[in-house]
Amino acid sequence: MNGADAMVKCLELEGVSTIFGYPGVAICPFFNSLLQSDIERILVRTEQNAAHAASGLARVTGKVGVCVVTSGPGATNLITGIATAFADSIPLVCITGQVNSELLGSDVFQEADITGAVESFVKYSYLVKKTEDIPRIFKEAFYIANTGRKGPVLIDIPIDIQNGLIKNFHYPESVNLRTYKPTVQGHSVQMKKVLKELEKAKKPIICAGGGVFLSDSVQELREFSEKFKIPVVSTMMGIGAMPTEHALYFGVVGNNGKSYANRAMNESDLLIMVGARVADRAVSQPDLITENKVLVHIDVDPAEIGKNVGPTIPLVGDAKHIFHYMLKHEMESDYSEWIDLLEKYKTTMVRHRKPNPEFVDPAEFIKILSKKMKSDAVYVADVGQNQMWSCDNHIVKEGRFLTSGGMGTMGYSIPAAMGAKKGDMTKQVVAVCGDGSFQMSMMEFATIRQYKIPVKVIVFNNSVLGLVREYQANTYKGNYCVVDLSGNPDLEKLSQAYGMPFTRVYNMEHIEQIIEDFLKNDETALMECLIDPMDTTK
Amino acid sequence: MKKRIYSVLVENRAGVLCKVAGLFSRRCFNIDSLAVGETDDPHVSCMTILSSGDERTIEQIEKQLNKKLDVIKVKTFDENQSICRELMLIKVKYNKGNRKDILEICDVMKAEIVDMSKNLMILQICEVPEKITLFISLLQSISIVEVARTGTLALQKCSESDN
C-alpha cells in the first residue's frame, strides 16, 4: 500500500461518499488510487468551486466536505473557497498535492507555500512529511474540522509522500491532541444563571446564528422557544433555524434585516445570543444590545464571547447540550404582552416597495418562489442585491437557506447548490444569483450536466452589479464606476449550449404558473428574471 | 493601554512561531517583545510575549492564543507579578580616553566585558528591560557599533504561582 492508497482508505473510513476536485501532476498518485474506490469524484471547472461544492454538501449533511486539488495554482485557486468556509465555520478537509518534499522551498514548477498562504483562514493545516503519518493526520483533520467551532483543515501532501510505502496501515480509533479539547458541556453555574434571568425577564428574546445549524440544535432551539414561549430573531446565517412563519419568529436582524427584528432585539430585557458572532452586519451598534438588558452569549468558541461585545453571562459550550440542559427546567412563564408588542411591530413596521411593473419584482418573486418550493427544499442565495432580497423575502418552511454570510463570496450559489444536491439527492435545490455572481461560476453548468446533478438556477439579471451600484448611488451621488455588465451573454443561448431548459421572465404576469412549471421536474433548469437596474434593496 | 506578559507553551514544530506571530499581526495586536526557546522538554518551546492593549484586547489575545492548535498552554500575568530579564550584547569602540569611563559604567550596571580587541569591546548585561535601555543611553556618548538584545524573558513570581 502506498501513501495515496492510504489517503483513499482514510477517506473511506471517514465515510466520505463524494469528493470535488481538480487533478494535476502533484496529486495524480491520489487520483490513481481513487480508481479502486467507490468514492464518487466530481471534476469541477475551477478549484474555488470544489471548496464551495464541498461546503454545500457539508451544510446539508452535517458531514465534513472534501475537496482535492493539485499544487501551486490549483491550491491557490482554492483559497477563496477555504476562506469562505472559514468565515461561516463550515467543516472541510481540503487536500492539496505538493511538489516532491526534497524540492520544497526551491521554487520549482507549480510550487506554492499553501500551508503558509492559508494560515489565517484554516482551523489547522498539515504539511505531511512522512508517509506513515497519513492515517494519524487524516484522523485528526476530520476530527478537528467537525468538532468545536467547525472549520476547514488543509492537508498538503508532497507527491513523493503519496508514492511512499506504508507497511502497516492502522487507522487510529480516537484522537488525542493535548492542545485541542473543545468545551462542549455548558457550565452548570452559568446555565442556572441564565434560567434565573429568564424567570425575572419580562421581554426575553433569542437571537439564533449559524451555530444552531452547526451544532445540529435546530430542534432543541424550537423546543426551547416553544416550551417557554420565548420569541426568536436570527442572523442571516441563522435563517431557517425557525420556520419563517412560526408564531414566535420575528425576522432577521442587521443592516439588511427587518427593522422590527432589530427593534425587538434592542428593546428586549434579556437577549440570548446563540451561535452568533455579533459581527458588524448583524449588530452594527453593539452598545444597543448591552444597554438596559442582560446579554447571554452562548458559543462553542470562547474567543467569540467578548470579542465584539461584553456579555453579562458568557456561556461556552455546544448549543445542543446547553438547550438539552435548559429544557429540563420547569417554570411559569408568560411573555404574552411582549409577544403581542412584537406582533404589533411586525405588522406595522413593514417596508413598502414601489416595484416597477415593467420588470420582475424580486421581492414578490422570491415570496412566490418560496411558497411553490417543496417544504424541505434547499435555497442557496448568492451575494449581492439577490442575497438581500432573498434574506428579506424567502420563506423557509422545513428546508435550509444557504449563503456565504461571513465572507460574502460572489459565485457561491451554483457550486454550493451542486454540493448540496450531491449531499442529498432527494432534496429540491434552488440557487438564486445575480448576473454578476452567476458569471463567476457559470462554468459549473458543465459539471452539473456531466454528473447529472439537477439544480434549479435563477438569475436576477439587471445588467449591473446592483449592490455596488446602489452603494455608489447613495455614497457617490450616482457617479457609477465599473458596475456596468452590459456585455452579458445571452442566457438563452447559453442554456442551449449546456443543453438545459430555459425560461425568461419579463415581469410579474402569470408568475405563479411560470414558477410552478420551472420547478416541476427534478432536472436542471435556468431561469432569467429581468430586474430593473435601478431597483434597490432598501 | 495596559501592559501584559504572555508565557506561551507551544509544540516545538516548524512554523509555529510564524503562526503565533501571524496571529498578532492579523488581529492588530501589539508585540512589544518576543523571545522563544526550547524548554526542559525538547518537544515544547516557551514563547514570552510582551503586549499591550485595552482590557478587551488583552483578553482576546489570550483567547486567540488558546485557539491555536499548536498552543499547549497560555499563562498571562502583569509585569509586577513576574521576574523579567533581558540579555544584551553591545559592541563599543573605545580608546585610552574613555576606557575607564566604560569600565565604571559596567561596574555600576553589573555588566561585564566578554570580548575585546585593540579598539573594540563587547559588553554583556543581563537585567530588567529598563536597566538595559538605561545602559544603552549611558553608552550613547561613547561610540556604539552594534547591539543585540534577546527580548524579555519572564516567569511568574514564585509567590504568585503558589496561589
How would you summarize the topology of this molecule?
The complex is a heterodimer of chains A (538) and B (163).
Chain A: H1 3-13, E1 18-22, H2 28-34, E2 40-43, H3 47-61, E3 65-69, H4 73-87, E4 92-98, H5 114-117, E5 124-127, H6 134-145, E6 152-158, H7 159-163, H8 188-200, E7 204-208, H9 211-214, H10 218-228, E8 232-234, E9 249-252, H11 259-267, E10 270-274, E11 294-299, E12 313-316, H12 319-327, H13 336-348, H14 362-372, E13 378-381, H15 385-393, E14 400-402, H16 413-423, E15 429-434, H17 435-441, H18 445-450, E16 456-461, H19 466-475, H20 491-497, E17 502-505, H21 511-519, E18 525-530
Parallel strand pairs in A: 1-2, 1-3, 3-4, 4-6, 5-6, 7-8, 7-10, 8-9, 10-11, 11-12, 13-14, 13-15, 15-16, 16-18, 17-18
Chain B: E1 2-11, H1 16-26, E2 33-38, E3 44-53, H2 55-67, E4 71-77, E5 82-93, H3 96-109, E6 112-116, E7 120-127, H4 129-139, E8 144-149, E9 153-156, H5 158-162
Antiparallel strand pairs in B: 1-3, 1-4, 2-3, 5-7, 5-8, 5-9, 6-7
Descriptive overview:
The complex is a heterodimer of chains A (538) and B (163). The longest helix of chain A is centred in the N-terminal third of the chain and has 15 residues, at 47-61. The relative contact order of chain A is 0.10. With 538 residues, chain A is α/β, with parallel strands linked by helices. Chain A contains 21 helices and 18 strands. Chain A folds into three domains: 3-163, 3-Layer(aba) Sandwich (Rossmann fold); 188-348, TPP-binding domain (Rossmann fold); 362-530, Rossmann fold, CATH 3.40.50.970. In chain A, helix 1 packs parallel to helix 6, helix 3 (47-61) crosses helix 16 and helix 14 (362-372) packs across helix 21 (511-519). By secondary structure, chain B is α+β, with helices and mostly antiparallel strands. Chain B folds into two domains: 2-77, ACT domain (Alpha-Beta Plaits, 2-Layer Sandwich); 83-155, ACT-like. Chain A, domain 2 (Alpha-Beta Plaits, 2-Layer Sandwich). Chain B has five helices and nine strands. Chain B has helices at residues 16-26, 55-67, 96-109, 129-139, 158-162, and strands at residues 2-11, 33-38, 44-53, 71-77, 82-93, 112-116, 120-127, 144-149, 153-156. In chain B, strands 5, 6, 7, 8 and 9 form a five-stranded antiparallel beta sheet that branches. The longest helix of chain B has 14 residues, at 96-109. Chain B is elongated, with a radius of gyration of 19 Å. The two termini of chain B are 26 Å apart. The interface between A and B is medium-sized, with 18 and 19 residues.
